[in-house]
Amino acid sequence: NNNNNNNNNGNNNNNNNVQYSVGPYCADSGKSIKLGVFSDETCQTKASDEIFASAYGITLPYSESTIIDGGCVSCKQQDDDNNGNNNNGNNAEVSESCEALYMDSGKCEENVSVISYPNTQACTYMHSVLPSFEQLEANGYVHKSGKTAQVFAWIWFIATCGLAYYIYDLTNNSSKTVELSKQEGGNIA
After folding, report:
1. CA 122, CA 99: separation in Å to the nearest integer?
2. How confident is the model over 65-77, as pLDDT tens digits?
3. Distance, first Cα to last Cα, the chain
């Protein structure tokens, strides 16, 4: 039995200096979050989940299923009849967390007649921008980093380095003075 423990703990005989990290990552095209084993502390390089299983003897939780439940959270907060109004807990109110989310969210209340002062600040976004994104996603568009932005970033970097060298060269060669009075024949023209 002791031999099995040594085998589990020493399973990384070839990688004694490697320290593994467990962290979340986006899976399934960003539609779920799972846990995975990574060979770096910034969770950039994915390693096999079997490393966790061999070290701890169990499978990594949430390695096959998502961490986030796709279900809805109720915003209904029940009155427990603590205020003595004898309504037997039938007065439902909106929970504070849902109320805060609603207050901070963008709204398009342009066709809501029961609101005295409708908020229409997000209508343009909801009517034009969101459908455009949904149409792009439906057509299979996947955002990729642009080559043009990378080219401009490199040009900016090289120009900045060149300017820094030019300033350095100017400041270090400032000890060279030009004496204007020592022209040909010693006369100033």
Report:
1. 18
2. 888 877 777 888 8
3. 101
- Gap between the Cα atoms of 108 and 123, Å rounded: 5
36 close to 23: Cβ distance less than 8 angstroms: yes
pTM for the predicted model, two decimal places = 0.34
Rounded CA gap, 136 and 28, in Å? 18
SS (H, E, C) 118-171: CCCCCHHHHHHHHHHHHHHHHCCCCCCCCHHHHHHHHHHHHHHHHHHHHHHHHH
Question: Which of 172, 188, 168 minimizes the C-alpha distance to 180?
Answer: 188
Mention every residue, 6+ apart, whose C-beta is less than 8 A from residue 188. Answer: 180, 181
Contact call for residues 51 and 37 (beta carbons, < 8 A): yes
Q: Given the structure tokens 């204007």, which residue do they identify?
A: 180
- How does pLDDT run along the chain (189 residues), one tens digit per residue? 233 333 334 444 455 577 888 988 887 666 788 899 998 888 888 899 898 888 899 999 988 888 887 777 788 886 655 555 555 556 778 888 888 988 888 888 888 888 888 888 888 887 888 777 777 767 776 666 677 888 889 999 999 999 999 988 888 776 566 666 655 655 555
Question: b/e per residue, 36-63, with b = 16+ CB within 10 A?
Answer: bbbbeeeeeeebebebbbeeeeeebebb
The closest alpha carbon to 130, from 109, 153, 108, belongs to 108
